[in-house]
Amino acid sequence: MKYILIVEDEPDILETIVGSLQDEFGDKEIHFEKAVNGEEALNIIRETNNHYLIVTDINMPVMDGFQFVKNLRGLNFDFPVVVFSAHADQEEQYLNDLGVTAMIKKPYLKDLISAVTKIVVD
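Below the sequence we write its predicted structure tokens.
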């Protein structure tokens, strides 16, 4: 079983992402988990340590996506990370330095699904 963690503070966007990915991978053994900020996501990861892929927003309360990825890497978790944000292009170099796998600008959900598919299939 593969686990994908979606980190997004907007409930409608979170459900749209999860629903779209479930539709795309319905025939595969993939479990989707959700977090509304980076702090919650780190807690989930620490508790389970079984994630295969993380999709995260940048602008979130409590802990934003930049700090989340920085902390994730600082804990030596090397999961692929896909950033899906309206601001993904603003800090592209910084995100690259943190080892982000892909950066997709909202609202291009088809591009997100394509990026996730590439990682899941490889």
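The radius of gyration is 13 Å.
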